[in-house]
Each structure stands twice: as structure tokens, then as C-alpha cells.
Amino acid sequence: MKSETKKIIIDPITRIEGHLRIEVEIDENNVITEAWASGQLFRGIETILRGRDPRDSGLIAQRICGVCTNVHYRASISAVEAAYGIEIPRNAEIIRNLVTLSLFVQDHIVHYYHLHSLDFVDVTGALAADCTKAAKDAQMWSEHPYRNSDGHLEAIKEKLEGFVNAGRLGLFANGYWGHDAYRLSPEENLVHMNHYLEALRIQRELSKAVAIFAGKTPHPQNLVVGGVTSVADMLNPQRLNDFLFIIKEVRDFIERAYIPDTLMLVNAYRDSR
Asked: Dihedral sign, CA of 122, 260, 199, 63?
């Protein structure tokens, strides 16, 4: 007797840049027997690059994505430099690294809070939180939690309540409100949503840091074959101080919000199936 199979299709797979279509076949025991993954968006960057001046490759290739633009930009520029045997100056390498690492940090913060956290954090559940208890619970994961006063948490709770009561949950739309699979307490939900909103500001500040040396973001313009164009910026003490000020603030957020929140989340869901 032939076993029955069932096909499941998930299209699109979200929370990634460049959506995927996943198809799987499962048997009568719900075991996957076949699986296929396919990209559904043809950007055609390779076709566009044909016949162009190699010095244009970075500005064209970075358009493959509106999020990780610098990665494609830098990789394509580096490929041209490798082809021609060009070694860039040390200062140019430093500037490239500062921009790349700023975007690296920004991507991690955005992915955790704004693309992923609401699979684990119930926005509506935060409305039942005791703000004094939430402030104390946060101290279990950080000696000095980020923006953790009772008054601040009360303001965040009031803001969330306004969104919920007005039916304006589009900012947090995922449709899982109140699901019994959520594991965080109301207080832990409030702590996370506090940092979710703070992370919106932090990612904006990181965009400013990138723009200091890269001109703008997304799609920066400071890289050229052989080095960078932002020589004057790297010699300007004010620009350097502005960059360092932002990075210090971001590090503070990471140490007092991002890392403690991930530890809290792992603790709550470590036994989930």
C-alpha cells in the first residue's frame, strides 16, 4: 500500500531580504521526505553589470538590496581591486571597516527586535504588566537595565495601550496576540517592548554613524576602486567625535538591553518544542 504524502508550501518566507518559496513533502508520520527552496525574485544585477566599466560595479551591485547595501558594495569593489592587484591605503581600510561594522551592529539589532522578536513577545500581554515588578525583573539580566525606571515603563505601557485600544497594531502586525505559545510574563513583555521602541531610535543613530563616512545610507557612496572618497571626513575631529559618540551610545544599548533581552528570551523558551 502506497503511503500518503502531503505537500506544504510556504510562500513567501519572510523576515529575510529576498523572499523564498519553500515546498516540503511529508509522510503519514509527519516526517519530511522531500524539500525544495527557490528564490522568487530575479533582480538581474549580473545582467546589468555586463559590459560596464569595472569602476561602476560597486554602485550597481549594491542595488541588489536596500538593507545590506554596503556588503554588496564593498564586496564588488574588493573583487575589482583583487582582479587588478590593487592594495588600498591603511586609512581607507579603517574607514571601510568602521562603516561595515556599524552596519553589522545595526543589522543585528534590527533583526532581533524588529524582524524577529514579535514571534516571542506578546505586545498585548505587556498591558497587564506591573511596572515596578518589570523594573525589578529586568535587573535579573542586567545590573543596570537600559531606561528601566518605573516612570519610563509606565509611559511605554501607556503608549502600547494607545496602539492597542485604537486598533493601530500595524506597527506590530503579526497576528499572534494572546497565543498560548508565548512564554514571557507580562513584565518581560513590557521590558522587551520598551527596548523594541528604543531600538528604533538606535538604528536611526547608527544610520547617522554610517552616513558620517559613507555619505548616506542605504546605498552609500564613499567607496571607489583603490580607497575611499571620505578623506576629509576622517581628518575632521568633529566628524570623528560624532561617530564615536554614537558608537558609545550603541554599545551601552547592546550591553544593557540587547544582550540581557536575548538571555531573558532564551531562558523563557529553552524548553520549547
From this structure: negative
